[in-house]
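For reproducibility, we list the full input for the fe (ii) ion complex.
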Amino acid sequence: MKELRLGYSIYTLDGIELLPAGRTLPSEVWRGLPVSRAASEQDGVPIFGYGTIREDLLDCIGEKPYDVIFSLDQARAEVLRSMAQVRIPLSLLAYLDYFKENDSYTYLHSLKVFALSTLLADIIAVTIQEMRLESTAGPLHDLGKFCVPLSVLNKALPLTRVERAILEHHTVAGYVLLGYYMGDHHGVIPTVAKDHHERRDGSGYPRGIRLADRMVEVIAAADIFDALLSPRPYKPTPFDNRTALEEITDMASHGKLSWDVVKALIACDRRSKPDYRYLTISTERRGTPPQDNVYGIIADE
Ligand SMILES: [Fe+2]
Ligand SMILES: [Fe+2]
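The corresponding predicted structure, in tokenized form, follows.
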């Protein structure tokens, strides 16, 4: 497995440099990473009791297409109950405040991925324990974007190769930061931050490993879906719902995501809420991706 060399330093909200640029992280046992004893002892507070998170999340899932995804009263109540049980250390919630103030897209995206991944986990998770962890990982998956300058996150033009590397740094930065505050880098939550852009065929980043963890894939699928549907400076016209699902279906066809995770997402998106295990999916592409999307185009190549 590949080693990871940090291209950029990792620092906390308080300005503490946890790791300098240039440090190499071995892939398997990442020993010696910094841990905040004080923070790891925090129990955490219920995420729904913090700031306006609950209200903001309810607004998000009341809007298209989440209104249809959460249209089944029983499933919606179940998911809200699961999310209400999620407790997060205050020091981590402060990062959501940072996004709320400085990058509202990342803030609202984190809440939508929280809701959608909890719903998907409710459908396909094997154990309650798995579902709980999944739910907690959702709102924190992009925490490492704190270490990416806002000028890169919000750039309307294609990124340069260097800027692309800085953006991709959010995965490792999130892993190091979450492990630091949670007192352990081996848990599901830091792992989700590190691996949510990896793909089953090894085509993702930061390590290009073959993603084999279905629970990480649940976050990945929710993440891709919400990212496609959201307007961004580099993608003023978002994907429509149908074209977004075709993109994600295409990823399953090419072995980047598991069919069952993609089917669960498509089943949620239908008003009739079919059982995802018996869903047949057309791979024909009829939608039109937005023409003004520069995501993935590298300026200096
Ligand atoms: Fe991400
Ligand atoms: Fe994300």
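The chain has 13 helices and six strands. The CA atoms of residues 60 and 112 lie 7 Å apart. Both points were considered when choosing residues for closer inspection.
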